[in-house]
Design brief:
Layout: E1 9-10, H1 20-33, H2 38-59, E2 66-72, E3 75-81, H3 106-113, E4 116-121, E5 125-132, H4 135-144
Antiparallel strand pairs: 1-2, 2-3, 3-5, 4-5
Length: 145
């Protein structure tokens, strides 16, 4: 079987918290269209929403927050980019996370649900969320492409 070339597909731009539903719905359509397993879809939707929400709360600019999805044969990468001042330092957590808190769990969730999370600070902040696909799921997803 010839593999399709994967491209980084842009999603809607979020300018305010109310726009997150549209970004989440577009991401869900891309994932479901490739027969992504429900637990992987959930993890990616949760983490993408957290990354977008953090960018809108802490680095909102008139350029908005941009998100994209890259579906590869063995991995899915969601990128969230803002154009704010950038993080002062790499995200670290020294205090325990309160699981019942309404906020303050985003970075913890991203680290727990993703296989790898990358932060790049340059003209804003870029967060790349990597989710590896089990081999059996990767074969089904490749066929759905």
């Amino acid at each position: 079987m010839k593999r399709k070339t994967s491209i980084d597909t842009p999603l809607s731009v979020a300018y305010e918290l109310g726009d997150l539903r549209r970004v989440r719905d577009e991401l869900r359509l891309h994932l479901e269209g490739r027969a992504m397993p429900p637990e992987i879809t959930y993890d990616l939707l949760t983490c993408a929403q957290e990354a977008c929400k953090n960018a809108l709360r802490f680095a909102s600019t008139p350029r908005g927050v941009h998100a994209s999805i890259l579906i590869l044969p063995q991995e899915v990468v969601v990128t969230v980019r803002d154009f704010g001042d950038g993080l002062n330092a790499l995200p670290t957590r020294t205090l325990p996370v309160d699981p019942y808190s309404e906020s303050g769990r985003g970075l913890f969730l991203m680290g727990a649900l993703m296989d790898r999370v990358e932060f790049t600070v340059s003209n804003g902040t870029r967060v790349r969320l990597h989710k590896l696909l089990p081999l059996a799921d990767a074969a089904v997803i490749e066929q759905a492409a």
